[in-house]
Amino acid sequence: MKTKVLIVDDSALIRSVMKEIIGSQPDMEVVGVAPDPIVARELIKQTNPDVLTLDVEMPKMDGLDFLEKLMRLRPMPVVMVSSLTERGSEITMRALELGAVDFVTKPKISIQSGMREYTDLIADKIRAAAKARIRARTVASGAAPGGALPALRNPLTSSEKLIIIGASTGGTEAIREFLMQMPSDCPGILIAQHMPEGFTSSFARRLDSLCKISVREAAGAERILPGHAYIAPGHSHLLLARSGANYVTRVEQTDPVNRHRPSVDVLFRSAALSAGKNAVGVILTGMGKDGAAGMLEMKAAGAYNFAQDEASCVVFGMPREAIALGAAHEVGALTALPGMVLNYLATQGSRALRV
């Protein structure tokens, strides 16, 4: 059975391009196109689509207002179509908080040579969205349940250990929920989230405003400090490296790995090489298998690893692959993972002090 897609965009040109791209996929069909949310509302009733692509900035009704009402009254998988602007990225971050599964940037119509790659990207996003677990939004997103967890109260734990996180589809919200429970003295955190250039800086700023810890987009050559999280920039791989006795960030614009840059496998493998048993790996919701092999290398190097469980994932792809390889020591729900990680770290710190 084909995935039914409804396209909502105020640009006739974008609607035409999206219709051609989606209609060219053998497992998808476009059941309607709408220039605004008012028309879209009626088409949803008529066509009952499996996935909606939604422009973030539209006339008559703001895309965010429409999304908020949609996720409250008729939850369904939504892929946002965003402009490559600072305003577009900020709106997109809010859309993901409201329940959108993922987003793509608007196609560069004039550059035909890259359309094949763009077509594959949109198709992959829609396939992932069609498999996503969608939950009705009954309260405004913002605060993590219970707030930040208690401080570790063990300088040894926070200065020597590192938390290494990888995620993809659904990962922006999963990372937000995880980081909002981190106490201000938690170990340094490195994050690879599949996200294009121009959006990771907005993502980092949003998290920094919500969390007790400091969150920034990694620039490279930064000393990794407790109470700080470093997010891979959308244009580069993020790696962990050593400089003398210190851990530092490194960013590289080498070729994509598993079709991604940043790649979770690249980050995890660097953690295996540079941190070994001092690393704690966390793999969250996401489509595909990026990170599974790297997490197994972390385990072989002495790291302790956690994977998000199927029930709490938007898409149970990356965690499933890591679990299948035997790379994860423990599996838990998203709400429980921060506590599980901190409990493990506290236990390790106690052991170190006894030794």
From TrEMBL:
Domain CheB-type methylesterase: 155-348
Top-level enzyme category: hydrolase
Main location: cytoplasm
GO molecular function annotations of the record: phosphorelay response regulator activity; protein-glutamate methylesterase activity; protein-glutamine glutaminase activity
Residue positions, PTM 4-aspartylphosphate: D55
GO terms of biological process kind: chemotaxis
Reactions catalysed: [protein]-L-glutamate 5-O-methyl ester + H2O = L-glutamyl-[protein] + methanol + H(+); L-glutaminyl-[protein] + H2O = L-glutamyl-[protein] + NH4(+)
Any GO CC annotation of this UniProt entry: cytoplasm
Cross-referenced InterPro entries: CheB-like, CheB_C, CheY-like_superfamily, Sig_transdc_resp-reg_Me-estase, Sig_transdc_resp-reg_receiver
PTM remark: Phosphorylated by CheA. Phosphorylation of the N-terminal regulatory domain activates the methylesterase activity.
Record keywords, A-Z: Chemotaxis, Cytoplasm, Hydrolase, Phosphoprotein
Enzyme Commission designation: 3.1.1.61, 3.5.1.44
Record remark: domains: Contains a C-terminal catalytic domain, and an N-terminal region which modulates catalytic activity.
Biological role: Involved in chemotaxis. Part of a chemotaxis signal transduction system that modulates chemotaxis in response to various stimuli. Catalyzes the demethylation of specific methylglutamate residues introduced into the chemoreceptors (methyl-accepting chemotaxis proteins or MCP) by CheR. Also mediates the irreversible deamidation of specific glutamine residues to glutamic acid.
Record NCBIfam families: PRK00742.1, PRK12555.1
Protein name (database record): Protein-glutamate methylesterase/protein-glutamine glutaminase
Organism: Massilia cavernae
Lineage: Bacteria, Pseudomonadati, Pseudomonadota, Betaproteobacteria, Burkholderiales
Gene symbol of the encoding locus: cheB
